[in-house]
Design brief:
- With 179 residues, this protein is mostly beta strands.
- It has a single domain, classed as Immunoglobulin-like, CATH 2.60.40.
- Helix content is 13%, strand content 51%.
- The strands form two sheets. The protein has a six-stranded antiparallel sheet.
- Strand 5 and strand 6 form a beta hairpin.
- The two termini are 27 Å apart.
């Protein structure tokens, strides 16, 4: 697994004005383990990663799950509804579609190649409940389901080790130096 960090102080908003965040650090497992799979017109493939944004002024942590889903179809499916279970408790909600690409070149009969990037946030407490279940050497997966407006649901996962490593990195960064 690869862990990346980014410091963010401000950025330009859509009106060209600078938006200040205070000092924030973003931890992410993007570009970590990625299994190569073949996309056909009968399957859906995807990649998921987790990120945490730490506000260095308030020590507030926001966790976000990103899922990138690829499929071939004539119509967009819009995988936005999320279902997951943590310690026997069922959660349900809607994610946010942050990006969608469509490539129909050479695919007019079998359907366009479609990619949807969906994100949803989870509380620090919920993420830590998942992370606490990690045991060294385990390849356990935490699973969740993305459901589209039409068609079949897609089952996605993150390795519990990936979640635990991110939580540990965030907690290490929040501790005062020298302890």
């Amino acid at each position: 697994m690869r862990l990346t960090t980014t410091e963010k102080v401000s950025e330009e908003d859509s009106y060209g004005e600078e938006k200040s965040y205070g000092k924030m650090i973003i931890f992410s497992t993007i570009n970590g383990y990625n299994k190569q799979r073949l996309l056909t017109q009968y399957n859906v493939i995807g990649d998921s990663y987790i990120s945490a944004t730490v506000n260095k002024t308030t020590d507030e942590v926001t966790y976000q799950i990103d899922s990138i889903i690829e499929y071939k179809d004539h119509d967009a499916r819009l995988y936005k509804h999320i279902n997951y279970t943590v310690n026997g408790r069922q959660y349900s909600g809607d994610g946010t579609l942050v990006d969608q690409t469509v490539d129909c070149k050479g695919h007019q009969y079998s359907g366009c190649l479609r990619k949807e990037h969906v994100v949803f946030t989870m509380t620090q407490q919920t993420i830590e409940q998942i992370a606490i279940n990690y045991t060294e050497g385990s390849e356990d997966k935490w699973r969740y389901t993305l459901s589209p407006e039409k068609d079949r649901s897609y089952s996605a996962h993150l390795f519990v080790a990936e979640i635990a490593a991110l939580v540990e990195a965030v907690n290490e960064n929040k501790r005062p130096q020298g302890l």
